[in-house]
Write a structure and sequence with these properties.
Largest sheet: 5 strands, antiparallel
Distance between the termini: 24 Å
Shape: globular
Radius of gyration: 14 Å
Strand order of the largest sheet: 3-2-1-4-7
Low-confidence stretches: none
CATH architecture: Beta Barrel
Strand content: 35-45%
Structural class: mainly beta
Helix content: under 10%
CATH topology: OB fold (Dihydrolipoamide Acetyltransferase, E2P)
Number of strands: 9
Length: 114
């Protein structure tokens, strides 16, 4: 897939932060298998909700306490009865399952990706 070049200004408009999952619940109402996440970004951002299609590799109970990266400045998106406020980031593996992006070491919640 080829994409158009972007400027550093375009990149800087995307606000990617790290947060800690404080709660995770199954989301059986979603059309595609998903997990509802509550992620604490600390400070001014606080706790935000996300629907993540990560069921191949993750169970809700294994996500609590894990740090993840998410885009925090997209508009909220309604997914069935749930409003997803942030886009949790991941990469597909060879089987198409999503692997979460997270820091190698514990960092402060709310830290911005540069």
């Amino acid at each position: 897939m080829t994409t158009e070049p972007v400027t550093i200004d375009d990149f800087e408009r995307i606000d990617i932060r790290v947060g800690t999952v404080t709660d995770a619940q199954p989301f059986p109402e979603a059309r595609k298998p998903a997990i509802k996440l509550w992620i604490d970004f600390g400070g001014d951002i606080g706790v935000k909700c996300s629907s993540a299609q990560i069921t191949l590799h993750y169970k809700p109970e294994t996500l609590i306490g894990r740090q993840v990266c998410a885009v925090v400045n997209f508009p909220p998106r309604r997914i069935g009865p749930f409003v997803s406020e942030v886009l949790t980031l991941g990469l597909p593996d060879a089987q198409g399952g999503i692997v979460l992006i997270r820091p190698d070491f514990k960092v402060s919640d709310g830290g911005k990706l540069f």
